Automatic annotation (TrEMBL):
Organism classification: Bacteria, Bacillati, Actinomycetota, Actinomycetes, Kitasatosporales
Protein name: DJ-1/PfpI family protein
PANTHER family hit by this protein: DJ-1_PFPI DOMAIN-CONTAINING PROTEIN, PROTEIN/NUCLEIC ACID DEGLYCASE DJ-1-RELATED
Pfam families: DJ-1_PfpI (PF01965)
Originating species: Streptomyces bikiniensis
InterPro entries named in the record: Class_I_gatase-like, DJ-1/PfpI, Prot/Nucl_acid_deglycase
Residue stretches making up the DJ-1/PfpI domain: 10-171
């Protein structure tokens, strides 16, 4: 599925201490579905280092990212979300995306960033655990859902142990793998061997 502007480009935020395991299913399978994945960092061309020590050179700077040029913004978790306001510009960008009707998907620590930005005050959401988000002082606790991943309109949230459920909700929002999402989920979440034939049939 393309965005209203016609783009199929998905933007993946990258920053120091990014949690490597959280977005691989989503980005790899979106790419297989025909989406272009571009990385967005604090500064274009200036490497960031993930929790695994992998260096990533962002394709573009956050300041240059416009909602109208994107089909989706993905915010991975990172330790830096709990270490200060360094990543606040990324959650501010998420607000701009949601205001423009462009979806945002956040997992793990990025959900705390959204909470601090006030973006979870009125939307159904999930995260690592409810008290982790409550510690941000946000006002959306009544909208917290005990689920692997939650999609509320243009916002998708998940906890750190649910990269597969996170990807499934992203696929649903973008219209990827119609008719095959259940098989995809059963293969990668439940290790159901029967799902392989369904997915590749």
């Amino acid at each position: 599925m393309t965005s209203e502007s016609g783009t199929t480009t998905v933007h993946l935020a990258v920053y120091d201490t990014l949690a490597d395991w959280e977005t691989g299913h989503a980005t790899a399978w979106l790419a297989r579905a025909g989406h272009t994945i571009r990385t967005v960092g604090p500064v274009a061309g200036e490497p960031v280092t993930t929790l695994a020590g992998i260096r990533i050179v962002p394709d573009l700077a956050l300041d240059d990212l416009r909602p109208e040029d994107s089909a989706l913004l993905i915010l991975p978790g990172a330790e830096k979300y709990d270490e200060g306001d360094e990543l606040a510009p990324f959650t501010a960008k998420a607000r701009a995306f949601l205001d423009a009707g462009v979806p945002v998907a956040a997992i793990c620590g990025a959900t705390a960033g959204l909470a601090r930005e006030g973006l979870l005050d009125d939307r159904r959401h999930t995260g690592a655990v409810s008290f982790y988000l409550a510690a941000t002082g946000y006002r959306g606790a009544e909208h917290y859902v005990e689920a692997d991943a939650v999609r509320d309109g243009d916002l998708i949230t998940a906890g750190p142990t649910e990269p597969v459920a996170f990807a499934r909700e992203i696929f649903a929002r973008l219209g990827a793998y119609e008719g095959k999402r259940d098989a995809w989920f059963r293969l990668f979440h439940d290790s159901d061997p029967a799902a392989f034939a369904e997915l590749n049939g």
